[in-house]
Amino acid sequence: MKDFMMIFIGADYQELGLSPEELQGRMGKWMAWGEKMGAQGILKGGEALVPKIKRIIGKDRTVSDGPFADSKEIVGGYYIVTAEDADKVVEIAQDYPDYDLGGTVEIREVMVFDR
Question: pTM here?
């Protein structure tokens, strides 16, 4: 078994203008998905991320504050799951709640270094 990070990319809920009821319904879908993975014993952790960004760039380490105009989508959060391979994580990601909002799931295997 390997660890994989599912990175969630999509629009900021606040910018979408979701009503409190819509936001509550969406959070319910997220909670149900997390509970489903927890019950299966595959969810190792994860968090939602706020849209405010600090970016450090280049050898001069220039610091910029965002969100940035060139970023129409934000990384909204991540989960780390345990699975046999990336194809299995693709199956797990089918329940991602934000596909209907144009959201994207990026799947990356967590690299393990010998210690």
Answer: 0.85
